[in-house]
Amino acid sequence: MNKSSPQTITNNLIEKISSYNLDNLPSEFELKSLLRDADKLKKVSPAEGWMLLGMIHSLSDYSEESIYAFENALALSTNQFNLVLENYIGSLEYLGKFEDICDLLKKYISDDNHDLISSAITIFARYGLIDDALSYQRKLKKLNIKIPLEAQLNYLVALCSQLNIDYSHLHEIYLFALSSMHKAGVMPNKMEFMEADDALIIIFYVNTSAENMSNIEWSIVDKLAESNTSPAILKKIVPILKSQS
């Protein structure tokens, strides 16, 4: 490891790790190099070193090792807590552990961490946990702090009320869609909502080939067909994919 400051080394390694994704995995040599650098960093900056180890293990789909490393990083972190948690969340999403992300936020969120509350609102909305998103939205509103996704959330709430849709069903269908996308190596860049023919249409925008998009859509259909969700609910909540232009 060079003589750069621990912060510079951390930033460089985060940038390098972030260049990989489900469609572009590091080679065995690259993984060993990343692990070696993170282990060296851990000796001079333990929290950042453990955090990077967590990120690297997630690239190898080693979920237990990744979670163990991140929990160590959080325990040791002082002024980098939000950074560690942000990368923890990103790694859990990379591993497809969406429910774990929500549990993690609820475990560590505090009323005085406004940045984390803002992130939580976005994440809860992303996973269809509308009650949780609205709860934290109210906290920020009392403090007169800008609320992320306020207009989108209000619109979604209005649509659910209009169509008599229970938020728990919305969350369930979100997870079916997200797990199908994750299995195919993609995640949505953004989501939109609209009402059509007495149904809530959830539009997931993705960057992927037409063939992969078609496979994902069939995977979602299969998951919905195998679920215990009633046909009436499936008619009311319709997930679709669109290419990100």
Description of the molecule:
The chain is mainly alpha-helical and 245 residues long. The protein is 67% helix and 9% strand. The protein has 2 domains: 1-94; 163-243, Macrophage Migration Inhibitory Factor. The chain contains 12 helices and 3 strands, in the order H-H-H-H-H-H-H-H-H-H-E-E-H-H-E. The protein has a 3-stranded mixed β-sheet. Helix 1 (6-18) packs parallel to helix 3 (46-59) and helix 3 (46-59) runs parallel beside helix 5. The longest helix has 17 residues, at 28-44.
Number of helices: 12
Number of domains: 2
Low-confidence parts, pLDDT < 50 over ≥5 residues?
none
Query: Structural class of the secondary structure composition?
Result: mainly alpha
What percent of residues are in strands? 5-15%
Categorize the overall geometry. globular
Rg value = 20 Å
Count the E strands.
Answer: 3
Distance between the termini: 41 Å
- Pattern of helices and strands: HHHHHHHHHHEEHHE
Helix content: 55-70%
Largest beta-sheet characterization: 3 strands, mixed
Protein name: Tetratricopeptide repeat protein
